[in-house]
Description:
mainly alpha; 4 helices; extended
Amino acid sequence: MADSYRWDLTSHRRESKLEELVEASPENTKAKALDDAVEAYLALVGGNEVMARRGVVDKLLQEATNRGGLEAAEIAEILGEESDIPVEFEPADWTVGSR
């Protein structure tokens, strides 16, 4: 009984995540949304068929080290250059602890 419940819960979570992925993706089908997500992940990691050179995360860390840090606009620029995911930076207004 417990294994069945666990299976149902895991299955429901996966289906929910898949639905969220499809909503977040510009693609209209689950298969295309999954393909895009897998390619995006492989590009982030690097060292694979999708991204033979270093991954985007490695590039971000290296650039931050070289420059002594990165601002949000610089991160968005690198992400936009290095992946197929459209990334844009728009400044936001932040308030903390305001009443």
